[in-house]
Amino acid sequence: MPTISMFYGIIIRLYYAPGEHNPPHFHAIYNEYRASVDIRTGEITEGSLPNRQRKLVQAWAELHQEELMADWTLVMNGDEPFKIQPLQ
Question: Are strands 44-47 and 33-38 parallel, antiparallel or unpaired?
């Protein structure tokens, strides 16, 4: 699962596997916390993050929604996703 971004101790990854289940989503990891985040809405669909990290991830996802959807399309076709600028 490639890491596409890292910021404030949060790792953002996409599964590199054609046929990954919908909706389009990415995985956010912070210490022992794991969450799947819907790219279109920014909502956590599985798992959890502490409140502060959840807000950071959602802000980042909103800023990079188009890039995330482009990366989702790449991984669904079996291609490697591009890195995305971290939250600054």
Answer: antiparallel
pTM of the model: 0.92
| 1 and 81 Cβ atoms separated by less than 8 Å | no
pLDDT digits over 48-82, tens only? 999 999 999 999 999 999 999 999 999 888 889 99
Q: State the DSSP H helix or E strand holding residue 63, giving kind and residue range, or none if neither.
A: helix 51-63
Q: What integer pLDDT is reported at residue 42 of this predicted model?
A: 95
